[in-house]
Amino acid sequence: MTEEIIIAGFGGQGVLSMGKILAYSGIMQNQEVSWMPSYGPEMRGGTANVTVIVSDERISSPVLNFFDTAILLNQQSMDKFEKSVKPGGLLLYDPNGITRHPERTDINIYRIEGSRLASEMGNTKIFNMVILGAFLKIKPIVKLENVISGLKKSIPERYHKLIPMNEQALKAGKENPEQVQKVA
Question: Class assignment of domain 2-182?
Fold first, then answer.
């Protein structure tokens, strides 16, 4: 199994953190991983993306032009990466701030109401964990307990008090089918 993923959105949406946690989760399962971030100098508010590869085999290169999965969290990312999903691949997106929805018919498209669910849960900062939970519902490439271990490894110890809230967000994304809608 090899899963090649691009996660893209605005800086501050937790794009890089989501990728890092996913990569750590793969490590916890003794898989080969690659995590390659890309962001502009302005970071928060600018665009950011991360390429993550999780594989049972050695990874020859972290540089990809096409992806099995694209998790797109803003319009600029949709415009840039929609065409980069391999035919038969998966595109997940949050509709908040999207003005042009995905148009391809040769991929599986899911709309995830992550920002709305995070807001209903009382903390918009858990948005990325809601999205990650929904992704793992659709493609369970890593186990939830390894994601929790990945959280502990990727965030500083002074923020470990926030792990239960992040765990709730992961479960909410994974267990709320009305928030995850297959579009195509």
Answer: alpha beta
